[in-house]
Structure formats: structure tokens, C-alpha cells
Amino acid sequence: MRRCxxxxxxxxxxxxxxxxxxxxxxxVVGFSFARLASDGANxxxxxxxxxxxxxxxxxxxxxxxxxxxxxSAIVFRWVVIALVIGLLTSLLPQFPWSDGVDATVWRSDxxxxxxxxxxLVAVPALAAAALSAAIHK
Length: 137
Description:
Strand content: under 5%
Distance between the termini: 28 Å
Largest sheet: none
Number of helices: 5
């Protein structure tokens, strides 16, 4: 029995692959730029990581838009991906440099960093998907 096109493309594996790939891209680019700094804070590393996240999301959103997937499925996919990446981006940096999660810092990051990262992922992906769907009609 064939699954309908919309349910096929909201598959958990598609979401997991995109989430893992974008997180890896963000951290590899960010840490690569951080290695270039000899001392002090390197604001360029964070900006490079954000830019990689934005461009990666837009590129993947563009691909999603041209596949003929219903826009509702694309919106669902990218909202889930954006929320997961936002939550993980605010949580993961606490582990390598500390003894665990600092609840106060994480709460602050949840209120400020998570919505920013989620928007940084969802907005370019959905805009690119809409553009791509319009072009490829």
C-alpha cells in the first residue's frame, strides 16, 4: 500500500536528517572559525555559524519547494526542524565547558536564543520553499 504524498514527506527521517545536517553544519563552521581566533571572544565564529544555518536552511527549503510536496507539509517540517535546532542550540554549548546544565543560563537562552535560532532556520527555509514552488509550477 502506497502512502499519500503529504505523509511520505513529513516522515520523521526527513526531519531528523535535516536537523542533524544543519546542526552539524552550524557547529563545524562555528568551531572552525573559532579555531582561527588566537585569543579572546570571536564574534565572527558565531556569525559564521548563524550564516551557515541560514544558507543551509534556505537551500534545503528551495529543494523542498520544487519537489511538489504540499506547502502544509513543508511548513510542518520546517517548524519542527526550527524548534528542535533552537532548543538544541541553546542546550548543547553548556556541556563541553561545564559540569552540566546551568538552569538559569539555559532558561535565559530559551527565552532569547531559541526563538532567534528557530526564526533563523524557519524563515529562510519557508521563503525559499515558497519561491521555489512558485517558480516550478
